[in-house]
Automatic annotation (TrEMBL), chain A:
Belongs to the eIF-3 subunit F family. Component of the eukaryotic translation initiation factor 3 (eIF-3) complex, which is involved in protein synthesis of a specialized repertoire of mRNAs and, together with other initiation factors, stimulates binding of mRNA and methionyl-tRNAi to the 40S ribosome. The eIF-3 complex specifically targets and initiates translation of a subset of mRNAs involved in cell proliferation. Residues 334-343 have a biased composition (Basic residues). GO terms for cellular component: eukaryotic 43S preinitiation complex; eukaryotic 48S preinitiation complex; eukaryotic translation initiation factor 3 complex, eIF3m. Residues 312-365 are annotated as: Disordered. This is Eukaryotic translation initiation factor 3 subunit F. HAMAP family: eIF3f. Component of the eukaryotic translation initiation factor 3 (eIF-3) complex. It comes from Lasiosphaeris hirsuta. It is found in: Cytoplasm. It comes from the Eukaryota. InterPro entries: eIF3f (IPR027531), EIF3F/CSN6-like_C (IPR024969), JAMM/MPN+_dom (IPR000555), MPN (IPR037518).
UniProtKB/TrEMBL annotation, chain B:
GO terms for cellular component: eukaryotic 43S preinitiation complex; eukaryotic 48S preinitiation complex; eukaryotic translation initiation factor 3 complex. It comes from Lasiosphaeris hirsuta. The keyword Cytoplasm applies. This is Eukaryotic translation initiation factor 3 subunit H. Component of the eukaryotic translation initiation factor 3 (eIF-3) complex. Keywords: Cytoplasm, Initiation factor, Protein biosynthesis. PANTHER family: EUKARYOTIC TRANSLATION INITIATION FACTOR 3 -RELATED. Component of the eukaryotic translation initiation factor 3 (eIF-3) complex, which is involved in protein synthesis of a specialized repertoire of mRNAs and, together with other initiation factors, stimulates binding of mRNA and methionyl-tRNAi to the 40S ribosome. The eIF-3 complex specifically targets and initiates translation of a subset of mRNAs involved in cell proliferation. Residues 13-161 form the MPN domain. Its main location: cytoplasm. It is found in: Cytoplasm. GO terms for molecular function: metallopeptidase activity; translation initiation factor activity.
C-alpha cells in the first residue's frame, strides 16, 4: 500500500556538472522510502539533544540503493549525525559521518550513500551548505544528485515527508557554497509483504493507552481479522438490505462493483468440493498426528536415556535401544524388541562388575 | 560485591517498533540464509526495553574457503566472532553520540519454520548471557510471518542450563544428578511492542478503517477503481489466506531431518556402549588372568602382582555428549507446537470455506 502520491509534472531534472559522456539521463528522479528508515528518523527526532543547540531539528544520512540509470532511488536505512546549529553557524561532525558510513556499509555492502535528512521543512542557507557537502565529489554522492528528505515532526501537525534534489545556483561566485536550488521530487513509501505483518503488530498498539501491544499468537490474530471482516460484511449487508427495502437510493457504481465481486465465487460441483476438502483435512490431521507422535517418541527416548534404573545406566541405554527400535515402526514389533531389552536387563543384573558381552543388536530396519 | 538494586529476572521484553521494522527488513532481505544482529536498550524492573538494533556485517561467501563456506553458518556464528565484537563496540560507541541507549541487551536471528534450536544458537546466547544475565535472543520467523501475524519471540537460557553448560559435560550421570531435561534448556519471555508518541501519531495517519457511518458514494465504476478503499495494516487480512501444502511440506521435511539427527545421535551412543562393553570385557579377562597368575605366584612363594594395573593398559572410551540429542528433542517439540497452532487456524478456515461453498 502506498501513501498518496501527489501528482507531479516534472519537466527536467537539473543537472549538476557531470563528466561528459557519463550518460546521466534527465529523467525525473523518484524516491522510494522503506518504512524502517522513516521509523528510524522519527526515533532519532525524539532522542535529540535539547540542551545547547537552538535549532530543534536533527540531521542524518540516508543510505540505500540506486538504479542503474540513476532515476530510481530506494532509501533503505539511515543513521544520525551529531550536529550543532546556532543562528550564524552550523557544525556537522564529518569524521563521525565517515566512520558511521563505513560501519553501515560493512553490514550491507551493496548500499551507498544517497543523501541526507532533516526533521523540519525549513530550507535555509544551512541546508544549502550541507546539501553541497553531500553532493560534493569526495564525500558525497557525486555525480548523482544528493537526495534531501525533510520530515515535519512538530507536535500537533501531521507528519509530512518531502524529498528534494538540488541544482547549484548562486547570486555570486563567493556565495556559491551556501546556495542552491531545491527541487521537489516525488516520493513513495514502499511496503513489502513481510513488513506488512510487522506493521500490523506495530499498529495494534496505536489505540491503547500505554502504546504497547503484545505479540499475538496465530489464532488470536485470525480471530481479530475475522471479527473485522465480519463487521465490514455486516456493514455492506446492511446497506444492501436498506436499498432493497427502499429506505435508500441505490447507487449504480456500487451495485455493479458488488455484483462483479460476488460473481468471482467459483462454481464447482459439490462432490468435488467434498472430495478436496476431505483430502486436505486428512493431510493436515495426518501431519499433526505424525508430529505429535514423533515428539512423544523422542520425549520418551530422552527420559529413558537418563532414567535411573536399578542395574545402572547401561541397561537404561539398552532398554532405550529396544524402545527406539520401534520408532517409526508399528507398535507390535516394538513390543517384541522391548521384551528382548527387558530380558537383557535381567541378565545383566546378576553381577554389576561382571559385564557380559551383548550379542550385536541390529538396528531398526 | 553488593548490588545496589535487587537482581530482578526479566519477565517481559518490550520491543520498540523501530527494532521490529529493522529486524523484519534485515531478515526478509537475506532470506533464506540466516541473518544476525545485535540489540541495544535498557532494562528496568524486570522489563527489558529494546530500543535499537543493527545487523552484523556479512562476509562474501566467495572469499572464504575451507569447510565453513556456508553463508548461513557464518552468519549464525557472527555474534561470537572477534571481528564482530569489535564492530559491535564501535557501533555502540557511535550510537551513544546520538543519544541511543548504549547497552547491549542481546542479539537477534532469523529462522525458517522454527528451526533455530541448534548448537550455534545456544553458544551465541551463552556468550551474551555469561557476562550479563539480562540478555535475550530475539527470533523472527520469516516464513510464518508471511502467513499473517508477526512471529517474534524472545528466549533466554535457564540458569540450570547455564551452570551445566559451563561445566561442558553432558553425560548421563551428570544429567541424572541435575535432572535437566530438554524442556528446561531455553525459557521463553513474552514480547510486547511499544511505540513512541511521535510514532503513534504517524501511525494514525496511515490508512485505517473508516469509522464514520456515512461515506460518500462513488459515481461510477471507474471512480472505485481509481481510488480503491485503503486497507488498514491492523488487523491484517493476509491471515485469511488459505495455503496448506507449502507449510505441511516444509514441516515434514524438517521433521525428517530431526529424525535423522536423532538416529545419528542414537547410533553414536550405541557405538559408545559397544566399545565400552568390549573394553570392560577385555579388562575383566585381564583381571582373571592376573588373579590366576597371582595364585600361581603365591603357590610358588613369590610376590603377587598388583591387580589394578589395567588403568595404564586399557582406556575406557569417552561418553559422547548428550547435548545435541537434547537440542534435537527441543526442536521437535517446537515443530509439533507449530503444527498444532497451524492445524487450529487452518481447520477453522477450511470449515468456513466449505460452509460457504456447500450451504446446508
Amino acid at each position: 500500500m502506498a501513501v498518496d502520491q501527489e501528482h507531479f509534472v516534472h519537466l527536467s531534472r537539473p543537472l549538476a556538472p557531470t563528466v561528459l559522456g557519463f550518460g546521466a539521463s534527465s529523467a525525473p528522479l523518484t524516491v522510494n522510502i522503506q518504512p524502517q528508515a522513516v521509523f528510524s528518523i522519527l526515533d532519532h527526532a525524539i532522542r535529540r539533544d535539547i540542551r545547547d543547540t537552538q535549532s530543534t531539528r536533527v540531521i542524518g544520512a540516508l543510505v540505500g540503493i540506486r538504479s542503474e540509470d540513476g532515476s530510481e532511488v530506494e532509501v533503505r536505512s539511515c543513521f544520525a549525525i551529531p550536529h550543532t546549529e546556532n543562528e550564524d553557524q552550523v557544525e556537522v561532525d564529518v569524521e563521525y559521518q565517515k566512520n558511521m558510513l563505513a560501519l553501515t556499509l560493512k553490514a550491507s555492502p551493496r548500499e551507498t550513500l544517497l543523501g541526507w535528512y532533516t526533521t523540519s521543512h525549513e530550507l535555509n542557507s544551512f541546508s544549502a551548505l550541507i546539501q553541497n557537502f553531500f553532493a560534493s565529489p569526495d564525500t558525497g554522492t557525486f555525480p548523482h544528485p544528493a537526495v534531501h528528505l525533510t520530515i515535519s515532526t512538530e507536535a500537533g501537525t501531521s507528519i509530512e515527508t518531502k524529498t528534494y534534489i538540488s541544482a547549484p545556483v548562486a547570486v555570486n561566485a563567493e556565495r556559491a557554497a551556501e546556495s542552491c536550488l531545491f527541487i521537489e521530487v516525488p516520493h513513495k513509501l514502499h511496503f513489502t509483504d513481510a513488513e506488512r505483518a510487522a506493521l500490523g503488530s506495530v499498529a495494534a498498539a496505536q489505540d491503547t493507552e500505554t502504546r504497547a501491544a503484545p505479540i499475538v499468537s496465530d489464532i488470536e490474530g485470525l480471530t481479530q481479522s475475522l471479527e473485522t471482516v465480519t463487521g465490514l460484511l455486516e456493514r455492506v449487508g446492511g446497506y444492501v438490505s436498506e436499498v432493497l427495502d427502499e429506505e435508500r437510493d441505490g447507487n449504480h457504481a456500487l451495485g455493479q462493483y458488488l455484483m462483479n465481486a460476488l460473481s468471482l465465487t467459483p462454481k464447482v460441483a459439490s462432490t468435488a468440493i467434498e472430495h478436496d476438502f476431505n483430502n486436505h483435512i486428512q493431510d493436515v490431521l495426518m501431519v499433526s498426528y505424525l508430529a505429535n507422535s514423533i515428539r512423544t517418541q523422542i520425549d520418551l527416548a530422552q527420559r529413558l536415556a537418563t532414567a535411573p534404573l536399578v542395574a545402572g545406566e547401561k541397561e537404561a541405554g539398552d532398554k532405550k535401544d529396544g524402545e527406539e527400535g520401534a520408532g517409526g515402526q508399528d507398535g507390535g514389533r516394538g513390543g517384541r524388541r522391548g521384551g528382548r531389552g527387558g530380558r537383557g536387563r535381567g541378565g545383566g543384573g546378576r553381577s554389576g562388575g561382571n559385564r557380559e558381552p551383548r550379542e550385536p543388536r541390529e538396528n531398526a530396519d | 560485591m553488593a548490588e545496589i538494586q535487587r537482581d530482578v529476572p526479566i519477565k517481559l521484553a518490550q520491543v520498540g517498533s523501530l527494532v521490529v521494522m529493522k529486524i523484519v527488513k534485515h531478515c526478509s532481505s537475506s532470506f533464506p540464509t540466516t541473518a544476525t544482529g545485535s540489540l541495544v536498550g535498557m532494562d528496568s524492573n524486570g522489563v527489558l526495553e529494546i530500543t535499537n538494533a543493527f545487523p552484523f556485517p556479512t562476509v562474501d561467501v566467495s572469499n572464504t574457503d575451507g569447510h565453513q563456506n556456508d553463508a548461513s553458518t557464518l552468519a549464525a556464528a557472527a555474534p561470537r566472532a572477534k571481528a564482530n565484537i569489535v564492530y559491535q563496540n564501535d557501533m555502540i560507541r557511535h550510537l551513544k553520540e546520538v543519544n541511543v541507549d548504549a547497552n547491549n541487551v542481546g542479539w537477534y536471528t532469523s529462522a525458517t519454520m522454527g528451526n533455530f534450536v541448534n548448537l550455534s544458537f545456544i553458544e551465541n546466547q551463552y556468550h551474551y548471557q555469561r557476562d550479563n544475565g539480562k540478555t535475550v535472543a530475539l527470533v523472527h520467523d520469516v516464513s510464518r510471518s508471511s502467513q499473517g501475524s508477526l512471529s517474534l519471540r524472545a528466549f533466554k537460557l535457564s540458569t540450570d542450563f547455564m551452570a551445566a553448560y559451563k561445566e561442558g559435560k553432558f553425560t548421563t550421570e551428570i544429567l541424572q544428578k541435575s535432572k535437566l531435561t530438554f524442556k528446561d534448556i531455553i525459557v521463553e519471555v513474552p514480547v510486547v511492542v511499544h511505540n513512541s508518541h511521535l510514532l503513534t501519531s504517524y501511525l494514525h495517519q496511515l490508512p485505517a478503517l473508516p469509522d464514520n457511518p456515512e461515506l460518500e458514494l462513488p459515481t461510477s465504476l471507474d471512480d472505485i477503481r481509481r481510488d480503491p478503499a485503503k486497507i488498514p495494516a491492523h488487523p491484517s487480512f493476509d491471515a485469511l489466506d488459505l495455503s496448506i501444502d507449502p507449510f505441511l511440506e516444509k514441516t515434514c521435511d524438517l521433521l525428517l531431518e530431526s529424525i535423522e539427527a536423532h538416529y545419528t545421535d542414537l547410533n553414536n551412543h550405541q557405538y559408545y556402549q559397544r566399545q565400552l562393553t568390549r573394553e570392560q570385557f577385555k579388562i575383566t579377562q585381564w583381571q582373571t588372568k592376573r588373579k590366576a597368575e597371582n595364585a600361581a605366584r603365591v603357590a610358588a612363594k613369590q610376590q603377587p602382582l598388583p591387580e589394578d594395573d589395567w588403568h595404564g593398559l586399557f582406556k575406557l572410551p569417552q561418553e559422547p555428549s548428550r547435548l545435541e540429542g537434547m537440542l534435537n528433542a527441543r526442536q521437535v517439540e517446537q515443530y509439533s507446537k507449530q503444527v498444532d497452532g497451524f492445524t487450529a487456524t487452518v481447520t477453522s478456515k477450511m470449515f468456513a470455506v466449505r460452509g460457504n461453498l456447500l450451504p446446508e
